[in-house]
Amino acid sequence: MSDSVIWANNLLSRAAEERLVRAVGAKRLILGEVVSDWPEPEVDHRARDADIIFGQPHPTDIIESRGIKWAHISTSGIDRYDNEGVRAAIRHRDAIMTNSSDVYYDAVAQHVVAFILADCRQLLFAIEMQRAGRDAAQMEIRRRSRMINELNVLIVGYGRIGRRLAELIKPFGANVMSLRRAATEDDLARAIAQADLPSALAAADHVVNILPDNPSTANFFDSDRFRQMKRGARYYSVGRGITTDHGALADVLNSGWVSAAYLDVTDPEPLPTGHPLRAVSSCFVTPHCASGHHNEDLRLVEHFLENLRRFESGATMLNRII
Amino acid sequence: MSDSVIWANNLLSRAAEERLVRAVGAKRLILGEVVSDWPEPEVDHRARDADIIFGQPHPTDIIESRGIKWAHISTSGIDRYDNEGVRAAIRHRDAIMTNSSDVYYDAVAQHVVAFILADCRQLLFAIEMQRAGRDAAQMEIRRRSRMINELNVLIVGYGRIGRRLAELIKPFGANVMSLRRAATEDDLARAIAQADLPSALAAADHVVNILPDNPSTANFFDSDRFRQMKRGARYYSVGRGITTDHGALADVLNSGWVSAAYLDVTDPEPLPTGHPLRAVSSCFVTPHCASGHHNEDLRLVEHFLENLRRFESGATMLNRII
Fold first, then answer.
1. C-alpha distances in angstroms, A198 versus A195, A224, A225?
2. Nearest CB to B292; choose among A130, A142, A284
3. pLDDT by 10s per residue, chain B, length 322
4. Do B118 and A120 touch (CB under 8 A)?
5. A97 pairs with which residues across the strands?
6. In chain A, which residue's Cα lies nearest the Cα of B265?
7. What own/partner pairs with CB < 8 Å and gap ≥ 24 does B229-232 have?
8. pTM surpassing 0.90?
9. How far apart are the C-alpha atoms of B72 and A61, rounded to whole Å?
10. How far is residue A102 from each of residues A64, A95, A160, measured CA to CA in Å?
11. How distant is the Cα of B99 from the closest Cα of chain A, in angstroms?
């Protein structure tokens, strides 16, 4: 391998960090300090001398870099780097930016199927009844249960996670619709034009929000859009918390207009004590763990190493953004 | 339609009963009394004069029937009729017996996927943490989470439910193995010979018991078989409660040998107060609702009516057992 200097600041398991050090060699690796779980990145001037940045650098360190050639972001979402300053810095230096969506998209899609099936099979309600020792709920649970077959699932924000989700739930017999930027068709999901979103919302039994965080998506699901949904529909959000108006969601859940919400992302995370959504029993929140899996750190490093191999041999990079 | 007399004793919703009466005509329909939810059948001498029996007749009424031509059992499991007396009575009269597995098999398969995904995504744990206001569990949940990809799933009792389950989880990337009566192969699941069951149990991350209730399956999963499982594996049971030794299951859950159990069936149902399994926090029980869905009564009637059409025109019957 070449002797390009790599700065990395991932919060890695010991095994994953050892794998990284062993693969690239300690000599050319600068490990940024990690101060806590799930940290906000800190400025680290040493990153500005690196050829390659892997992890969650402070955006300023990319902008002020002396010779960056490639930045590999260790998440799927790139909100922090999705701005003109960073883009210009990368382009100006003829550098590359990649993310780690290969590592995470499948887990998020599986998490959504888990949510949808838990709802269809009334799993959380049934186990709550079990824990409370209430056995008489059998007929009630059977009557509340659904099969996914013939239910309409609308995926709003149809990227890799959305496509994988469609692939996983099609065999159940769901009708899948999708709102996507480009009105291209695929075999998995019927594409909906932006103008037809109200009628798609009115037809959907399950509405899955996988929108990224950008200026056009803030509070995309607001009071109006929730009211366009079919009475009794279910809402899922696994992209970015800021795309949901949480106050409006609490209202439509409390009124029963939306039957249940399953959120892996909120704004802020976690929701503060006393937040209206916390008191809503039909709101189920997992703590931004949809993309998580036990060996994610090791997979993150392997994915970086594969891209490093490609970078050094001039091959096509995986998950290239810029 | 012909004027054969139909006796029926299903516990049907009003809409489903109206559909049945409208379709076959009140004149030739004898409705057996239903005394409670999920009843044990009672002897009803009127059933013995019917040509067609639909529902859950008392087995004696089949054996003592004066001219039964067809019995359509309204469940998937036929434990109650799976004996020589009933079989001989049907055969002796050149009659037909069918069940309702078309109505239920898919829901049960989807319920199992819901169980498996809830486990992989640590959904029940995450929601329990949410309800308790413990937000700090994020990294723990991520580390405990799994994707189904590359996990070994062993299906013990590979009939229609098992095949549908395999069909639904293959797209996730699971390796599916199956123990079945006939050692036939299909594309969905690698067939395991009975002699190879111990090594299959040792390889499986998820063991799904869908065995029917018959003399060879009582306590099939006993202490020995649980000990043959890989440490940390998960156990699912959705066929018949009697196929699991519940005391042995409580032991292996308490010792941590089996990480978690998800049961839709127990013996008895529900488990009595004070039963050892009730105190095990890694044991999740749904109340025999895996096959349930909100329109099951209507589908049950439609399925019967389709078979009635076939019966009266001499076409091949659906779900024929005898």
1. 7, 10, 7
2. A142
3. 568 999 998 878 889 999 999 999 999 999 987 655 566 788 999 999 999 999 999 999 999 999 999 999 999 888 889 999 999 999 999 999 999 999 999 999 999 999 999 999 999 999 999 988 887 688 899 999 999 998 999 999 999 999 999 999 999 999 999 998 776 678 899 999 999 999 999 999 999 999 998 888 999 999 999 999 999 999 999 999 999 999 999 999 999 999 999 999 999 999 998 899 999 999 999 999 999 999 999 999 999 999 999 999 999 999 999 9
4. no
5. A71
6. A138
7. B229/B201, B229/B202, B229/B204, B229/B257, B229/B258, B230/B201, B230/B202, B230/B203, B230/B204, B230/B205, B231/B256, B231/B257, B232/B256, B232/B257, B232/B258, B232/B259
8. yes
9. 73
10. 28, 21, 9
11. 19
- Distance (Å, rounded) from C-alpha A211 to C-alpha A214? 9
Residue in chain B nearest A262 by alpha carbon: B127
Query: A8 vs chain B: nearest CA distance in angstroms?
Result: 20
Which of helix, strand or coil describes residue B234? strand
Taken in order B175, B180, B183, B187, is the CA torsion positive or negative?
A: negative
The neighbouring-strand residues paired with A234 are A206, A260
Encoded amino acid at B213, one letter = D
User: Which residue in A92, A4, A95, A106 sits closest to A51, CA to CA?
Assistant: A4
Residues 6+ apart with CB under 8 A from A165: A109, A112, A113, A155, A208, A210
Give which of B37, B205, B188 is closest to B109, Cα–Cα.
B188
**A51 CB contacts (<8 Å, ≥6 apart)?**
A4, A5, A6, A67, A68, A69, A70
Sign, Cα dihedral of A172, A175, A176, A182: positive
ipTM over 0.90: yes
